[in-house]
TrEMBL record:
This is SYCM protein. It comes from Neodrepanis coruscans (wattled asity). The gene is Cars2.
């Protein structure tokens, strides 16, 4: 929804923001390492280690995805300055 302003001036700004967003996402996606193979579970001790490793991998993934989430928030805020509100 565009609030105020001339659509002919808003559209180029929207496109610029979307291009910037795409570049950030693409850069992030290309920088991701290949997924590691699953670790086989061997007995109870192996299962406990595997759970700890899974927690560490999840934590690492969340840290790796943080830039993507920040880019999404930034795009939303930038578009709001042009009167485009994403909810």
């Amino acid at each position: 929804v565009v609030v105020g302003g001339d659509n002919s001036t808003v559209l180029p700004n929207v496109l610029d923001e979307l291009v910037r967003f795409r570049m950030k996402v693409r850069h992030y996606a290309l920088a991701l390492p290949e997924a590691a193979d699953a670790v086989p579970m061997e007995g109870v001790v192996g299962a406990q280690e595997s759970k700890q490793e899974q927690k560490e991998k999840r934590k690492q993934l969340m840290q790796e995805r943080k830039p993507l989430l920040e880019a999404c928030d930034s795009l939303r805020a930038d578009l709001a300055t042009f009167g485009i509100h994403i909810k």
